[in-house]
Structure formats: structure tokens, C-alpha cells
Write a structure and sequence with these properties.
283 residues; mainly alpha; MetI-like fold
């Protein structure tokens, strides 16, 4: 048996990798520098990149639970968590049922339904947000966590159905046939055989739904207009006073807001990569 020898990455690979990492880190570094720069230094006519005076007042204000900025910030965090949890609990069951039907259940019009479902991923959010606003306003369901989450569900359902259905395709039919011989129905096979085998894909979908919900901006900007429902992505953009924009506290809040998503991506990146790779192997 021949063992394949892999050549070492070339210098071009390392150059591209360094460029990629730098392009990702520059906004974070720049944002951190702005967050620790006093407001009076931001508009100085100077060639210095770093501030002469470093302050952490913006972070102290956001992490001081007695301050107004902290209450607004953590209220946005709470709202994002609520919508993320609701969206996850609605999306995953629906996506798993749809994916099983598309992957394992033969029925007439299956290809057409699959095409229609997946083609909705190409529809931009801005094409539907104004009609959605009018519907929500007429039904008086604006500023509502559940109905806001329903919009997220309709946005994320096709992608997660695609990921799960492609993973279900990799499960051998012989396993299902053995379950049928033992007396399992399709529903029993789904819960006792398919779902346990698909936990990596389901967990990857869960992480994707969380990350996509956490980063939503356009939908809640229109459908969530009060601080009772605004997610952190909207709250961060609204740290403004009557006469000026608070650049320091805005960048500090933005950096703190991405910390949960970054930690989740780092600790569970294997599941995310597994889910994306399984999606690329679909029929």
C-alpha cells in the first residue's frame, strides 16, 4: 500500500494566509484602538496611529451594570439570545423533518419542491422586508420576539434543510431497511435511527442558526423598533447622543458584541466545517 506524500506548502501559500489573517484582524485592531482613544483625540490632525492617552472608560461604562449604557447594551444581548433560542427551536425540527422527506421519502413532485425550496436562498432580504413590514404592521405584531424569529426561520430554513438532507443522503439505506424489518415505522426510524446518526450535522445547523441570528441587522432594523426587542446588532449602531456620535463606546460595544460569536466559532469550528462539508457533498 502506497502512502501519499504531501508536499510542504509553498511560500505563496504563506503569503496568502498572512494577507487573509491581516485583512481579518485589521478592523478589530482599528476598532480596539478607537475604543481606547479619548474623543478629543479622534479628530486631531496628526500622523500618529496610536493615541497619546489610553482610556478604558468605554469598556467600564458598558460593564458597569448601574450605568445607562450598560443597561442598553446588556438588554440588546438579552434580546439577541431570546431571538436566537426561539429561532433555533423552530428551525431545527422543521429543517430535520423537511430534510428527511426530501432525502428518504419518495413522493411525486419531490424534485420540484426541492428546487423551489432551495431557490429561495437566492432571494435577497431587501426584496421582502417592506412587504413583511406592512404585514406585521397590519397584524400588529411588530416588536415581537416570536414573529421576528419566524422571519428568521423562513430565511434560514432552506440552507439548513439543504445541509441536513445532504447528510441524510450519506446514511446507507440498508440501515433503514434493517429497522423496517425489526418493525419500526418511518417515524420511529427517523427518531431512533436517523437523528442519532445525524447529531454532528444537527449541531452544525444549530451553530449556523445561532451565528446567523446573532448577526442579523436589516430584518430587526425594520421589524424591531423598540429597545424591548432590538438585538445587540442594532443597539450597537445607536450609541449616539443628540448632537454627536459616540465613536469610542460604539466600537467598544461592537467588539464586546462579537465575543460570543467568536468563542462559539473557535470552540465548535469542527462541527461547522463538518456541516458545510456535508452540504457540499449533496446530490
Amino acid at each position: 500500500m502506497k502512502i501519499k506524500k504531501y508536499s510542504k506548502p509553498s511560500i505563496l501559500y504563506y503569503i496568502c494566509l498572512l494577507f487573509f489573517i491581516t485583512a481579518i484582524l485589521i478592523p478589530f485592531v482599528w476598532g480596539f484602538i478607537v475604543s481606547i482613544t479619548p474623543e478629543y483625540e479622534m479628530f486631531k490632525n496628526t500622523k500618529k496611529f496610536l493615541p497619546t492617552t489610553i482610556i478604558f472608560d468605554n469598556y467600564k461604562s458598558l460593564l458597569d451594570f448601574s450605568s445607562r449604557d450598560s443597561k442598553i447594551f446588556f438588554n440588546g444581548i438579552s434580546n439577541s439570545l431570546k431571538t436566537s433560542v426561539i429561532t433555533i427551536f423552530l428551525t431545527l425540527p422543521l429543517a430535520s423533518f423537511f430534510a428527511y422527506a426530501i432525502s428518504k421519502v419518495p413522493f411525486r413532485g419531490k424534485r420540484f419542491i426541492k428546487f423551489i425550496l432551495f431557490s429561495t436562498m437566492a432571494i435577497p432580504v431587501l426584496a421582502t422586508i417592506i412587504p413583511l413590514y406592512k404585514i406585521f404592521a397590519s397584524l400588529r405584531v411588530l416588536d415581537n420576539f416570536f414573529f421576528l424569529s419566524l422571519v428568521y426561520v423562513t430565511s434560514f430554513l432552506p440552507m439548513n434543510t439543504w445541509i441536513m438532507s445532504n447528510f441524510f443522503d450519506t446514511i446507507p439505506k440498508e440501515i433503514e431497511d434493517a429497522a423496517f424489518i425489526d418493525g419500526c415505522s418511518k417515524l420511529c426510524t427517523f427518531f431512533k435511527i436517523i437523528l442519532p446518526l445525524s447529531l454532528p450535522s444537527i449541531f452544525a445547523s444549530l451553530l449556523l442558526v445561532f451565528l446567523m441570528t446573532w448577526s442579523q441587522f436589516q430584518i430587526p432594523l425594520i421589524l424591531a423598533s423598540s429597545y424591548e426587542t432590538k438585538p445587540i446588532s442594532i443597539v450597537v449602531s445607536e450609541f449616539v447622543s443628540k448632537d454627536s456620535i459616540k465613536y469610542g463606546i460604539t466600537t467598544a460595544a461592537g467588539l464586546l458584541a462579537v465575543v460570543p460569536a467568536i468563542f462559539i466559532s473557535i470552540f465548535f469550528h469542527r462541527f461547522l466545517m463538518h456541516g458545510l462539508s456535508s452540504a457540499s457533498k449533496g446530490k
